[in-house]
Amino acid sequence: MEQTIEKTRLQRFFSSDVWFSFKSNPVAITSLVVTILMILGAVFAPVLSPQDPFNLAAIDIMDASMPPAWNEYGDARFLLGTDDQGRGILSTILYGARISLIVGFSSVIFAMIVGIALGLISGYVGGRTDAIIMRIADIQLSFPAILIALLIDGVARGVVPKEMHTDLSIYVLIFAIGISGWVQYARTVRGSTLVEKNKEYVQAARVIGIRPLTILRRHVLPNVMGPVMVIATIHLALAIITEATLSFLGVGVPPTTPSLGTLIRIGNEYLFSGDWWITIFPGAALVILVLAVNLLGDWLRDALNPKLR
């Protein structure tokens, strides 16, 4: 029975306008392929990476600042060269993309949970609750997201004991980026909830005595997830950029953790000495990842827009 239901769902998906829009859009297909390849590269970094940048026993300082392998002074062991600590750039990119994606996905999920919950409550309950939540959202919108993330990171560093900074840095970063991005979800979900709660199926559910929480979870939430998925896709790219920016400024992940932002910051210090590969390759990986996710989000926004069908 379950297999039949799954087949029916798959058949509906492959006959839907969204699938037709995807398979007829080369940019969307390319973006999805690039995104999946980079995610797989990050997930299987321990298998694909020629070197473990966290294993100090495998790192030799004498290999520091080696150019790419095709350079006459390069080494075949390090295809894209090495950084100032002797870590292979290719290995650090694979592990760095893993950390950037973990922070990006985790902060987006956190922002989604907070934003969707507050948006549903605000739109369904209304009144003073709606006014308070939306005024908080308006106040937060008056500050740049990067400034809020910097503020939260700074407060956390002042509250958390210094010896715990390294262990908690990624969690603080996820919280800072997530809490700075919940507003877009809340405002979108609130608007959709205001429309959905006045429809007949919600009023019928009220009449037969279904609890408000059940109505929101079973009936309203599935109908507001379309715009949320578009926001989440675009927000993922913004979260990765924010993590890279904070790490570049030295307030993100610690220098010993090779996220893409940290690698770019380290390479920037050696850029004018001729060691261009330390920052160029991680920067290119960041640009490709963010561009692919953004293009995927643009396609999803157009595909789910009924006015463009």
UniProtKB/TrEMBL annotation:
SUPFAM superfamilies cross-referenced by the UniProt entry: MetI-like
Membrane topology note: Multi-pass membrane protein
Pfam families: BPD_transp_1 (PF00528), OppC_N (PF12911)
Cellular location(s): Cell membrane
Gene3D superfamilies registered for this protein in UniProt: MetI-like
Chief subcellular location: membrane
Keywords: Cell membrane, Membrane, Transmembrane, Transmembrane helix, Transport
Domain ABC transmembrane type-1: 97-297
Bilayer-crossing regions: 27-48, 99-125, 137-156, 168-185, 220-241, 276-300
Ribonucleoprotein is among the record's keywords: no
Similarity section: Belongs to the binding-protein-dependent transport system permease family.
Name this polypeptide is given: ABC transporter permease
Organism lineage string: Bacteria, Pseudomonadati, Pseudomonadota, Alphaproteobacteria, Sneathiellales
